[in-house]
Amino acid sequence: MEIRSTIAGSLPKPHWLAEPEKLWPAWRLDGPALADAKRDATRIALFEQDRAGITCVTDGEQSRRHFVHGFLAHVEGVDFTKMVRRGIRADRYEAEVPTITGPVRRVGPVHLDEATFARRNTKRRLKITLPGPMTIADTVYDAHYGDRRALAMAFAALLREEIAALESVGVYTVQLDEPALNSYLDDAEAWGMQAIDAAVRDAMCRTAVHVCYGYGVAANIEWKRSLGASWDQYERLLPLLSKTSIDEISIELAGSRVPPGVLAEVKGKDIALGVIDVATDRVETPEDVVATINIGRDYLPDERIIASTNCGMAPMRRDIAYAKLQALGAGVALANA
């Protein structure tokens, strides 16, 4: 079986849709014009992935300001009029986050319309990303539950409802984005895996969890520099994730200090291997991509490898992101040849 390809999720938004190269960009439009622009941007995201030969494509998260807040904006009990500045990801950086003011409840499908539109506009397998329960709990200000585990489990129940809706329109993979796992290893072991299993329980579609070291922004780059010569978070997390009911684990490898031997710790899951570094503007060559894939091949058979990006590319320049897509597709074709 050949090596497959995907991306972690997001792509840069066009300048006519939102502020460029920002994690929480302001929309340029509103009302029906904004809705039309989001759909046009989704068409472009799908086209660029198709042009690059990506096996399992995403909508590029073109309809969301942020990968977490895009989901929360449609959840009752989350108040965006009460924004609080707080440290997130173990105080790696600060962010303005909404307040949990009461029991959270999904009042209807959140990303169903986006997924339906994307499904109609590509013939390839479609992946839709959702924020994971621990990462959601880390990206809000909780004034109601008073307990991170209880908050995460409440959101896990909403995520399970959303996954059921996405399955109904032919989404092939639903991915939970869980960068917070790398910041809270003890919590990840104590209740993080339980929350993930609750979110994907009995899902009919393929399920994945993405755990990386963050977008290529200054705070994350500085944090990586502080981690030393060998990043050992995956050594603890991957065996735990192997015991969950998910199908696929998405991790960072290209340009990182992740010791590749941790791949041997993954049992019974496919690995979406980060072969594109999103923390640099340097565009990889296809040979670079093959070299990183070959590191994975020392531990995994081809049928368990999915070549991917280390993380989302939302804050990156569009021309660089699209060039990296082309490198990804060409590298996978070369590896399979």
Tally the beta strands. 11
How much of the residues is beta strand, in percent? 15-25%
The helix content is 25-40%
User: Which blocks of ≥5 consecutive residues have pLDDT under 50?
Assistant: none
The structural class is alpha/beta
Number of domains: 1
The appropriate CATH architecture is: Alpha-Beta Barrel
CATH fold field value: TIM Barrel
Which term fits the overall shape?
Answer: globular
- Tally of DSSP helical segments: 10
Gap between N and C termini = 12 Å
Largest sheet: 8 strands, parallel
Cα-atom radius of gyration: 18 Å
Main sheet strand line-up: 1-11-10-9-8-7-5-2
Mean pLDDT: 94
H and E order: EHEHEEHEHEHEHEHHEEHEH
CATH C-level name: Alpha Beta
Polypeptide structure, described:
- Helices cover 37% and strands 20% of the residues.
- It has 337 residues and is α/β, with parallel strands linked by helices.
- The protein has one domain (4-73, 111-336): TIM Barrel, CATH 3.20.20.
- It has an eight-stranded parallel sheet with strand order 1-11-10-9-8-7-5-2.
- A hairpin with a 4-residue loop joins strand 3 (75-88) and strand 4 (93-106).
- Helix 1 packs parallel to helix 10.
Which properties best describe this structure?
single chain; 337 residues; alpha/beta; TIM Barrel; 8-stranded parallel β-sheet; 3-stranded mixed β-sheet
Break the fold down into its secondary structure elements and pairings.
Layout lengths: L3 E2 L25 H22 L3 E2 L11 H4 L2 E14 L4 E14 L5 H9 L4 E7 L1 H5 L3 E2 L5 H20 L5 E5 L7 H16 L5 E6 L6 H8 L7 H10 L5 E4 L18 E7 L9 H12 L7 E5 L8 H19 L1
Parallel strand pairs: 1-11, 2-5, 4-6, 5-7, 7-8, 8-9, 9-10, 10-11
Antiparallel strand pairs: 3-4
